[in-house]
Amino acid sequence: MTVFKKHVFVCTSGKTCAEQGSEAVCDKLKEKIKEMGLKKSIRINKSGCLGQCGFGPMVVVYPEGNWYCQVSKHDIDEIIEKDLIGDKVVKQLVYIPEKD
Ligand code: FES
């Protein structure tokens, strides 16, 4: 069994991300990864609340721990190209949490 190069979590069942379109984001990510033949190296999973409600859809990419906010279906190609394949952060989507 191989270990995934990237593991992506999309918050789909928390209080707000689902209302902000996260299911569509997750579905599109899964669809594109499958189309591109990357299923063995990149895993897309739905997740519960990531604790950052209101900034969604929230997406986090491991192992780097890149957090993205307000992700839309239109951002998927860029996330795949830059981060999941190119190992670069998609700067305009980076989530910077508010300080407590
Ligand atoms: S609902 Fe998505 S981070 Fe809480």
Structure description:
This protein is of the alpha+beta class. It has a single domain, classed as Glutaredoxin. It has 2 helices and 4 strands; from the N terminus they run βαβββα. It has a 4-stranded mixed β-sheet with strand order 2-1-3-4, with helices on one face. The longest helix has 14 residues, at 22-35. The protein is globular, with a radius of gyration of 13 Å. The site of FE2/S2 (inorganic) cluster (FES) has 12 residues, from loops.
List the keywords:
about 100 residues, 2 helices, single chain, binds FE2/S2 (inorganic) cluster, alpha+beta
Unreliable sequence segments: none
Strand order of the largest sheet: 2-1-3-4
Number of domains: 1
Mean pLDDT: 95
Note the overall shape. globular
- Write down how many β-strands occur, each being a DSSP E stretch of 2 or more residues: 4
Number of helices: 2
Order of helices and strands: EHEEEH
Please indicate the percent range of residues in DSSP E strands (runs of 2 or more). 15-25%
Distance between the termini: 42 Å
CATH topology: Glutaredoxin
Strand count, sense and barrel status of the largest sheet are: 4 strands, mixed
CATH class: Alpha Beta
Bound small molecules, by name, code or SMILES, are: FE2/S2 (inorganic) cluster
Structural class: alpha+beta
Overall radius of gyration: 13 Å
CATH superfamily: Glutaredoxin
> How helix-rich are the residues, as a percent range?
10-25%
Assigned CATH architecture: 3-Layer(aba) Sandwich
